[in-house]
Amino acid sequence: MSSSAQPIRVVLADDQTLVRSAFGRLIASAPDMSVVGEAATGREAVLLARSTRADLVLMDVQMPELDGIEATRLITGDPELSGVGVLVLTTYDTDEHVMDALRAGASGFLVKDARPAELLDAIRTVAAGELLLAPGPMSRLISYALRAPAAPKAGCPAPDGLITLSDRERQVLTLVARGLNNQEVAGALGLSPSTAKTHVSRIMTKLGMHDRAQLVIAAYESGLITPGER
After folding, report:
1. One domain, residues 187 and 156
2. pTM higher than 0.90 for the full model?
3. Which of 114, 142, 170 is the C-terminal boundary of a domain?
4. 51: exposed, middle or buried (C-beta count within 10 Å: 0-12, 13-18, 19+)?
5. Which helix (H) or strand (E) holds 25?
6. Which range of residues forms the domain containing residue 135?
């Protein structure tokens, strides 16, 4: 990050004061990010996301008044907050939490026992507009997608739509489903990062999807990629 770049503005949302304090100190230790607000409830998190113009909300799942899933849905569903990413951080990494958080529009999911460096890297990844899933939640997401009923769920178009993709777009989707970010996709295919980003955006438009999590699910449900494939 260059010295002239603005720090990543983070809102901490957790009902435990000690947890917020610990995360706050960690984030303050990073020169490229700062804490601009702390919320003890999901409702406070939504209000702070609006008032602080945060880049990212570090969101706990279990909170009073409004849980982290619903708070995430309100943030990502607000056109005025389209630039705000949500990184869900929780003690639990169950299938239900992973899927609910991603369907609500979260861009990342980590469990609270992640190493400090992992958390800081996750914040940077989500703030850059990429999808972030720890290995455990990622494997659960894949497992869930593979055993889900064939009928598409609300917000997740049928994987048959993949026939509308060009060969290059299918290559890009395959790499996205393997967890590569735009820069890594670009390197793998000999493209510029901006071209890779454009391909991802076009794929989302063609499939009627809104985030990379849905792309991952579609790739596995369609058989475009299978677990363990390299």
Report:
1. yes
2. no
3. 142
4. exposed
5. helix 17-28
6. 8-142
